[in-house]
Amino acid sequence: MEIISTSAPTVLDVISTKELEKILVDEKLFASEEESLGRVEVLGRLDGIVKDWIKRVTMDKGISDEEQIQEANAKLFTFGSYRLGVAGPSTDIDALCVGPCYATRHDDFFGKLFRMLQETPLVEDLTPVPDARVPVIKFKFNGVSVDLLYAQLQFSVIPEELDSLQDSLLHNLDEQTVLSLNGCRVTDRILSLVPNIRNFRSTLRCLRFWAKRRGIYSNAMGFLGGINWALLVARVCQLYPNALPNVLVSRFFKIFAHWKWPNPVMLCPIQYQAMPHHVWDPRSNQRDRKHLMPIITPSYPCTNSSYNVSSTTLRIMQEEFQRAKELCEEIEAGKRTWITLFEPYHFFGSFKNYLQIHIAAKNAGDFRQWKGWVESRLRQLIHMIERDMGGVLQCRLYPGDFSENSVKSSSQCHYFMGLGRKQGVSPQDGEKFDMRLTVDEFKSHVVWMYSSWKQGMQIHVSHLRCQDIPDFVFPGGVRPPKSLNEKKRKRIEVIESTKLKKSESSTAGHSSGQKSSQTESGVALDGSHGLKSGPSVEPSTSSVSSSTSASSRPQRPAVSIETEDDNATSVSQAQNFNQVGATVAAALATGTISSFCQNESLEELEPPELTAPCFKTAFVATQKPIIKLQFSSLVK
Ligand SMILES: Nc1ncnc2c1ncn2[C@@H]1O[C@H](COP(=O)(O)OP(=O)(O)OP(=O)(O)O)[C@@H](O)[C@H]1O
Ligand SMILES: [Mg+2]
C-alpha cells in the first residue's frame, strides 16, 4: 500500500492539532462519562436478553437435555461509529446478535426476541424492519437508540470467543446474514488497517462534524454516511501514517478535492473467496460500472459502500471538498483559524425556491416506518426533477427533518429541497418549470413501491419561495433578519452552530413557528403546482399550468371521477396502466382517498400488461364529497 509521506509531526502540528481537538470538545462532540456508562449498561442488559432468548428458543425446539440448554449461546457484537470509538452524545449503537443454526431470523429473531423486547421495561419505539436489505429491529433502550441486526451462523453452539473476521464463517450463509455480519467485519478491519487508531478517531470526528455542518452527512440522501467517511479518513491515515489530525484533515481535502472519481478508494486490495457473494467489480458487473464515487469496504465480500451517490450529490460534495481545501490552506498559512472550516452551510439562505415535503402517519409506529421509507426515496425526487426539467435545474436536499413543534413530533415531519439553476445555464425569458407531473409521479412511486403502506401514511409536496420558509426550520424558531452585514452574519452563524451541535447526528426541528404560505403541489388527482422561473424567478401560483418541458411528458391516465351526485369528470388521457395505478397510489398517499377495493392487483398492471382492456377500482374518500373512481376502458 503506497504512502505519500512518513514525515513526523512538528511542534506546530502538535499545537494546531490541540486547537482542532479543542473545537471537538467545545462543541460537545464526545459522550459524557454518564452517557458512556449508560450505553455500556444498555449493552450488558441486551446481551443478557439475547442469552436468555437463545435458551428459550432451544427449549422451544424440543431440546430438553439440560446440558444442551446450558450450552446454548447467542452473542452480541457492536459495530458502526460506537465500535469505531467516534460516537457522540446522540449517536446510535449498532449491534449484531449472532445466533446458532437453529435460531431463525423470521420466527425467532423477529418473533420471539421482538416480543421479549416488547416486554422489557425501558424499551420503547420498537420498530421491526424485516424487509430491509439488511433486516433490523430498531428501538430505544433507556433512551439509547439501538439498531439490532441478526446473523444466523452454521454453528450449533456459538463460541463466546467467536472471531467475526474469519472468512470461513461466511460459508453457506444466507445473503442477509452475510450483509449483517459485514458491518462488524468492516468496522474491525478498518481498525486493523489504520496505522494509528487515536489519530484516525480524532480526524474522523472532525470530518463527521464538518460533513454535518456542511449538510452532506447522509447515506440515505445520496451524500456520505458514517461508514463512508470512516473509509475515506482511514485511507488518508494510511497515506500519511505519522501525521497528526491537523495534517490529516488538511490532506483529506487536498486529496478528495482532486480525486478522479470513479476511481475507487480502497484500504486494501479487493478480497476474493470461493464463495458466491457479490464482490464489487466494474469490469464484470454493469451496475458497479455506474457507481460514481466508489468507496470499497475492506473485508470479503468487498462492496461499494456509497452506491447512493448521484451526479448531483457528487458535485455538491466536490464543491465542499474544494471549499474546505482552500480554507485549510489559509489555516495552514495562519490566515484563519480552524473554526472557520466548520461554519455551517446556510441551506435556507442559499436558494430562492424550495420544495417542502411533508410526511405524516396515523400513529408513531406507522410514522417511523413511513419516514424511513420516504427518506430513502427522496434522492429519487431529485433525479426525477433534474431529468424532467431539461437538465436546467439542480436540487439539494437538506439531510434532516423538521417538526413544527419544539418537541419532535411522533407522527409528522418536513423535509426541504433547494431548487436552483445549474451553473452555466443561462435563464430564458418567460421560462417556466412545471413539476406537477414529476411530483405526482414521485409520490406515486413512493407509495407504489412500499409494500407496507397503510391508511393514514401521507406525503405532500409543495413549492415555496425563500421568504415563505416556515420559521420552525430556524434555530429557536426565529428567522434571521433579511440583510445582514458580514459581522452580524458571523454572529448568527455562531448561534446556529450552538443549535446544530445539539442535534449533531440528526437534524431535528426547532421551536414552533408560523405556518408558511405555500403552494400545494401534491394534492391528489387534480392538484396543481408549477415552479415558474425566469431571469428573476417568480413564485408559482396553484394554477400555474403549462410549460414547455411538461408538454413532452406523458399525460395523466384517463380516470373518471364520480362524485356523490354522479358527475363524472374526466381528468385526462391515459398513457398506460402503470400511471393509473401510480395516480391511485398518490391519491392514497395524500389522504384524498382513504381506501379502495380493486378487482385486479395493481401489481398486475406493470408492463407488459399495459394492453389489458380495463380494470375497475372503487375508492371511498375520507371526507365529503365521497369520491368514487371508476377506472375503465383506459386509452392506451
Ligand atoms: N452502505 C453501506 N455499505 C456497507 N456497510 C454499511 C453501509 N451502511 C452501513 N453499513 C454498516 O453499518 C454500520 C452502521 O451504519 P451507520 O449508518 O449507523 O453508520 P455509523 O458509522 O454507525 O455512523 P452514525 O454515527 O451516523 O450512526 C457501518 O459502520 C457499516 O459497517
Ligand atoms: Mg450507527
Structural commentary:
This protein has 636 residues and is of the alpha+beta class. The chain contains 16 helices and 17 strands. A hairpin with a 6-residue loop joins strand 3 and strand 4. The C terminus is likely disordered. The site of magnesium ion (MG) has 6 residues, from helix 4. It comes from Citrus sinensis. This is Nuclear poly(A) polymerase 1.
Descriptive labels:
636 residues, binds magnesium ion, five-stranded mixed β-sheet, alpha+beta, single chain, disordered C terminus, five-stranded antiparallel β-sheet, 16 helices, binds adenosine-5'-triphosphate, Nuclear poly(A) polymerase 1
Topology, element by element:
Layout: H1 11-26, H2 33-60, H3 66-71, E1 75-79, H4 80-84, E2 93-99, H5 105-118, E3 123-129, E4 136-141, E5 144-152, H6 175-193, H7 197-213, H8 226-239, H9 245-258, H10 286-289, H11 311-332, E6 353-360, H12 364-388, E7 393-397, E8 412-421, E9 432-433, H13 436-448, E10 458-465, H14 486-502, E11 519-520, E12 531-532, H15 548-551, E13 560-562, E14 568-570, H16 577-590, E15 593-598, E16 617-621, E17 628-630
Parallel strand pairs: 2-5
Antiparallel strand pairs: 1-2, 3-4, 4-5, 6-8, 6-10, 7-8, 9-12, 10-11, 13-14, 13-17, 15-16
Helix pairs in contact: 2-5, 6-8, 7-8, 7-9, 8-9, 9-11, 12-13, 13-16
Adenosine-5'-triphosphate (ATP) binds next to α4, α6 and α8.
- Summing up helix and strand content along with how strands pair, one would put the structural category as alpha+beta
CA radius of gyration: 26 Å
Spans where pLDDT lies below 50 across 5 or more residues: 494-579, 592-636
Average pLDDT works out at 80
Task: Compute the number of helices.
Answer: 16
Helix percent reads 25-40%
Strand content: 5-15%
Distance between the termini: 59 Å
Main sheet specs: 5 strands, mixed
Question: Which small molecules are bound?
Answer: adenosine-5'-triphosphate, magnesium ion
Q: How many DSSP E strands?
A: 17
Reading side by side through the largest sheet, how are the strands ordered? Answer: 1-2-5-4-3
Overall body shape = globular
